[in-house]
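Sequence only, no structure available. Ideas?
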Amino acid sequence: MSGAKPATLYHVSPAGRRKAILREGLSPAAEPSYPELERRGVYLWPERDSAWLWTGEQPGEKDVWAVDVSGLEALPDPAIQGACYVPHGIPPARLELLHRSVRRDPH
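Reply:
I predicted one. C-alpha cells follow.
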C-alpha cells in the first residue's frame, strides 16, 4: 500500500462468526485460514471488492466488515498484493457490518 494510508479497510469472515465478532471483535487466527497467509494477524484489504474476491471459491455465507484502522499499524504483506494485516485483535467498536450472509457458491 503506497501513499496515504486509508482510515477504513475491509475484512471478510464466515457469517457463523458474526455474533462473536460483534461481541469480541476480530482476532488473529491461531492457524491461517489460507496457506497464502503466512503472517499471523487480522487480514484486511483496501477495497470491499478485493476483500470479497479473496474468499475465492470457498463456499458458505460470508460477512463483509468495514474496519476503522485509524491509529493502528496495518502492515503490508509482501506476498499478497494489496493485502495488509494487523498483528493483534481489533475491538468491535472499530467494526461496521456492511453485508450480512452473502453466499459464496463454489460454481
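The first strand starts at residue 8 and ends at 14.
Hope that gets you unstuck.
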